[in-house]
Amino acid sequence: MNIESFQTAQVYALNYKGDIIGGYIADLVVDNKVILEIKSVSALNELMAAQLINYLKLSKLQVGYLINFNSTSVVWKRFVCTS
User: Fold this and answer.
1) Is the pLDDT reported for residue 71 higher than 80?
2) Which of 15, 29, 43, 53 has its CA 20 to 30 A from that of 67?
């Protein structure tokens, strides 16, 4: 796999009826196709998963990885959003 480009701290605006009411900041976006959300916590949880799913919906990207480096081995989960 060749990585063509990546963006760190990619901002996705949250719009409601044409007004920007907030936003989300994804840790890393690779080739404008995949979001990598990096964590260093004792365990991944459902709130972190929901956060990544929201990033995928706002960005209109389909694939994201939730990655945790705070354990004896790297733990990751893959998410696919098709809606």
Assistant:
1) no
2) 15
Residues 46, 42, 78: CA angle, nearest 5 degrees: 45
51: amino acid identity, one letter: Q
Residue 4's identity, in one-letter code, is: E
| CA geometry: angle 48, 22, 39, nearest 5 deg | 25
Burial of residue 48, with CB atoms counted within 10 A of its CB: 0-12 exposed, 13-18 middle, 19 or more buried: middle
Q: Which two tokens mark 46?
A: 């459902």
Specify the pLDDT at position 3: 64
Query: In Å, how far are 73, 76, 77 from 5, measured between CA atoms?
Result: 27, 22, 22
Its pTM stands at 0.81
DSSP state letters, 34-49: EEEEEE-SSS--HHHH
